[in-house]
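Render this sequence as a predicted structure.
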Amino acid sequence: MKQSLQLKLSQHLALTPQLQQSIRLLQLSTLELNQELEKFIEENPLLEREEPSAPPPETYHAPGANGDAASSEERDAEPVVQEIPAANGDGEREAASADSDWLAQEAGGFGSASRDDDENSDFGQGEAVPIDLRAHLHWQLGFTKLSERDHALVSILIESIDDDGYLTQDFAEVASLLPADFELEEDELAIALKHLQSFEPTGVGARSVAECLTLQLAALDEDTPGRATALIIARDCLDVLAARDFAKLKKLAKCDEDGLRAAHTLIKSLNPRPGAAFATSDTRYVVPDVIVRKTKNVWTASLNQDAIPRLRINRMYADILQSKRGGLMAEQLQEARWLIKNVQQRFDTILRVSQAIIDRQRHFFEHGEVAMRPLVLREIADTLGLHESTVSRVTTQKYMLTPRGIFELKYFFGSHVATEAGGACSATAIRALIKQLVGAENAVKPLSDSKISQILGQQGIVVARRTIAKYRESLHIPPVNLRKTM
């Protein structure tokens, strides 16, 4: 075989580092973007955030119907991705001063004396620490007159309570936690549990839902309407009540319809999770990327300036590099410029996609979910000349603030269902119609999935019963037998 040299010319797609960074920034949420930028700022001394004293930011608006927009030269001339400056600190200082004066008045002479005697004292404003369920129960136990032995047993039971207020361990498991020389008698834990169940909130220490409801009913006045019947149902007939078999329930409880209705209303007013009020919740707030407003009967999008980071090149290092070429700092300067440009391009793309969504879903902003039209990613991609994967990245974890609430951009996309007229209806609109029909149904005789399918068919929307069931479950609407009431 003879060896020879050959020259071939071929094309292949290569992702430059700048393009890779642009794609990565595009798919990040606002929180993740700020975390990524902090990492870049720590690693690159040429990149920094602008101070709050910078001039007020410009508002970015979506291109108009005629397609006019800032030229690429104008965008490149803006070296900074701007954001709204922080609020004036004077008002905050005045509010803090007023709070400190109020605290000094409440504390009497102690607060002012401490401040005068020791100006360097570090008394920060403390936050209220929420009290959990176990701490609340231990606090009540401290006011209960019990022997040291009973006090220890109740304390052990409190530590076995879950966050909902239930005792999830049986007595054998609780006894195994005690020392071997404790010599526990048979009824001691049962007596300790009775003490625990007398604490607030009522129903704590129950071992089942039936026991929890029974404890709450037993604590009510005897002349409470429906109490006697409700006690029978809570003890023995909760499964029948859950199945909404009211005919059988009346036989088991030996009551008429009025008595059953009063008992049912009373049971619904109880709390099956007495410890939930002491649970700590982690509240998370969504910062919208885009704000939608209606101006002169036209829905337009603008970027939320609070979500836009404000970056710039460090001027001192940039001046040094003007006289010295090359080196590591020159590379860092180029990387900083790339990052600023990519962040700017990220928000420009988000704004373009958001405006395209608004143009196609304007009926939603006017009339609500029932007017949502079918929309797929490819439709937006073809309109804006973007790749479908780019639109998918833009609409993931990006949020839009509208007069109807905050929605993720992906919310406006959905499959379609054919109509008799040859058109299409979006799945979001069908779910909204199902919610309306269920909300207006007769609670005594609720609508079945087949009946809802027939009603939608009369409106020209062809939807199968199993599709109705799927949409109903996505809305967390229970089936017809669980929606039936008296």
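Summary. The first helix runs from residue 17 to 26. The chain has four domains: 17-62+283-414, 133-197, 209-278, 416-486.
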